[in-house]
Amino acid sequence: MKRIIGATVAGVIAFSGVYALAASLSVTSDQLGAGVTTVAACQSATLNATYVPSYQASVPGYSAGTVTLNGLASTCYGVPYRVELTGSGSAPLGEATGTTPSSGSTLVVTLTTVNAASVTGVAVVLGG
Questions:
Q1: How many angstroms separate the CA atoms of 94 and 91, rounded?
Q2: Number of other residues whose CB lies within 10 A of the CB of residue 77
Q3: How far is 101 from 95, CA to CA, in rounded Å?
Q4: CB atoms < 10 A from the CB of 74, how many?
Q5: Are 43 and 127 contacting, i.e. CB atoms less than 8 angstroms apart?
Q6: Which of 42, 54, 90, 111 has the fewest CB atoms within 10 Å, counting from its CB?
Q7: DSSP conformation class of 37
Q8: Which whole-number Å values give the CA distances from 84 to 60, 79, 102, in the listed order?
């Protein structure tokens, strides 16, 4: 009976130590650990991304190399962005990075020219 009580007490102590260690982990750039943090979005309204294919003899055919984002909120001014054109299976076709402007609601992004027929989606990330 003493062995069962001893094993139970040891298990509780070990679990408490592991739980306390896990609770102390945080997310930082200079430590290895695990954790969860909430990221507030700078854009609450819909951001519309469009591209207009243009004919390029070098492709040959129509290409997409410019994406226009409309509806940029002022809370997203001056933040890093990444825009990516994707193809079948969400395969990346072309991407551009930069910083959003400090005014205006439109952002025009120039990417590497890709065959417009291959584009199935546009991915936009705002913020670090």
A1: 9
A2: 15
A3: 18
A4: 10
A5: no
A6: 90
A7: -
A8: 21, 16, 22
Which residue in the block uniquely carries the two structure tokens 């940029």?
72
Name the nearest CA neighbour of 73 among 102, 96, 50. Answer: 102
The mean pLDDT value of the chain amounts to 76
Decide if pLDDT at 108 tops 90: yes
Res 55 pLDDT > 70: yes
Share of the chain above pLDDT 70, in %: 67
Instruction: Give the integer Cα–Cα distance in Å for 12 and 31.
Output: 28
Residue 23 pLDDT > 50 = no
Model-level pTM greater than 0.70?
A: no
